[in-house]
Amino acid sequence: MTRRVLVTGGSGFVGSHVVDELVERGHKVRVLDLLHPLSHRREPDYLNPEAEYVRGDVQDADLVHRTLEGVDAVCHQASMVGLGTDFGDVIDYVRHNCLGTATLLRELASRKPGGPLVLASSMVVYGEGRYRCEVDGVVNPAPRSRASLEAGRFEPPCPRCGRALAPEAVPEDAPLDPRNVYAATKVHQEHLASAFARETGVPV
């Protein structure tokens, strides 16, 4: 079954691969992307020529409304990424990630779509991830310190005995533990999408 799919953030690293896969499977793809200067210095040269590209901000309700015309499904990849340089970035992250998602969901709900919404989240919603100590078992490491990061020590030690930890896959039922602004906005996106699904019946 051929769908017309809107991919927000479809010019980004992950989003562009989603676009390629959808095109390869025979779907009609429309991309809404701001080309934020923090992520893109210029128009990327890897964009799929079979997709339709709309340049603009997912916070622009009128643009989102027009971009959703004829769309059967949405893959929401648009997000301001990274951890931010300091807390002064908090408004930008909340505006792009939370308000942008809320705008998309409101416009999507007004169209009563039948197709699914796929939301890209991030492992950062689970904090530092899942680690196992050979002595203490599964542990929850403390946040990485600025001094450790500046010294190139990226792997956290065991918070109990200080030994090296082995990373493991994080299960989806792990408790949420956002430790920076970006992570908090990704959790908020998940909660907004869950509320959207309950209110509209659209699968998310």
Mean pLDDT: 92
Amount of beta strand: 15-25%
Indicate the structural class: alpha/beta
The global form is: elongated
Low-confidence sequence ranges: none
Radius of gyration: 19 Å
Taking the alpha carbons of the first and last residues, their distance comes to 19 Å
Q: What helical percentage do the residues reach?
A: 25-40%
Largest sheet: 5 strands, parallel
How many β-strand runs?
8
Helix and strand sequence? EHEEHEHEEEHEH
Strand order of the largest sheet: 3-2-1-4-5
Describe the 3D structure:
The structure is a single chain. This protein is an alpha/beta fold and 204 residues long. The chain contains 5 helices and 8 strands, in the order βαββαβαβββαβα. α3 links the parallel β4 (73-76) and β5. α3 (90-110) packs parallel to α5 (181-200). The mean pLDDT is 92.
Structure keywords:
about 200 residues, alpha/beta, 5-stranded parallel beta sheet, 8 strands, about 30% helix, about 15% strand, elongated
The gist of it:
The protein is an alpha/beta fold and 204 residues long. Helix content is 32%, strand content 16%.
Topology:
Elements lengths: L3 E5 L4 H12 L3 E6 L18 E4 L5 H7 L5 E4 L13 H21 L6 E3 L10 E4 L3 E3 L6 H5 L15 E3 L12 H20 L4
Parallel strand pairs: 1-2, 1-4, 2-3, 4-5
Antiparallel strand pairs: 6-7, 6-8
